[in-house]
Amino acid sequence: MTKKFMIIGIDASRANKPQKTGTEWYSYHLIEELKRIARDGDKFLLYANSPLIGGLQILPENFIEKDLQWPPKYLWTQIRLWWELWRNPPDILLVPAHTIPFLPMPKKIKVAVTVHDVGFKRFAQLYKPVQVWYHDLTMRRIKQRADLIITISNFSKKEIIDLYHIDPSKIQVSYLGYDRVAYNEQAKNVAVDVLKKYQITDPYVLYVGRLEKKKNIGNIVAAFALAKEKWPELKLVLAGNSGHQFEEIKKIIAENRLESEVIITGYIDQKDLPPLIAGAQAFLFATLYEGFGLPILEAMACGTPVITSRIAPHDEVAGEAALLADPYSPPEMAECIIKLKENPEFKNELITKGLERVKKFSWQQTARVIYNLIA
Known about the structure:
alpha/beta; Rossmann fold; 14 helices; 13 strands; 39% helix
């Protein structure tokens, strides 16, 4: 029997943001890989709230840009996207970033949405109250309307089931990938130039991500302070935009008298991230809650040893290729940093394991799994 060709609408608004973090890069790479693997007969509609940029605008014949720019300016998903779905309903709506229209959509549309994690429900105290309210409301709408929930780890699937009591058969796991062209050992070759650009001196340990309390920056700074007692020349680089409770993080840095030892870079240009990671003595990603932990893969791919939290998604992603520490224990994290300094043979073994581990992950594989689920 011939397989029916589909019209697949994709919310490309997050992928189209000029400054991308994890969810935006997931959306971007998913669309780019779907361009490469899509069947000729399937038609893809890319919904966005501004003209497509950054390569997204380069479209195969069966991909069509749907730039939904009419008023109102705000509530793009809830009004403009919702209205377009009524005017021209696709067979499938794929939303890579958690938010779907609250108003009723045509029943004929099959809705598939990626829920990256439900940390706002598990650790509500680490989020702004309005974020908790909005994301929880969104999850309840997803539970009611989505035909398929895609998530990024078995840990996240379990969390969604536990916290929202959704039928497990409705939830499918598709691991994240990483950009193999950008993140590899060759990034070390230009690390010196990037360090000069951001006024960073070697040696340093590195954290990449939003600078907010839920990312455990306070304990990361405390661990660094302890490690400096045995490694005085070490610096800590915090790379990323400031987030919720950033003022508390700055206070912790000041209390430890580390203002000149902690380098806060702000948002890093995407082309500069791989060399910055490759030049680090260690990548310190001791966050309290994640759905997956994509930076772990990116660091391993650059040949940088990883220290990460002893929590379910991180051991699922890293396997035995990273040092796992209690994220609530700065002394334990500091011990890991010092171990890498004092045991070069162990450090090299960890790097080798990391380079082998990342071979299991790719954006192409992510896209293939999702494409097979929806079409």
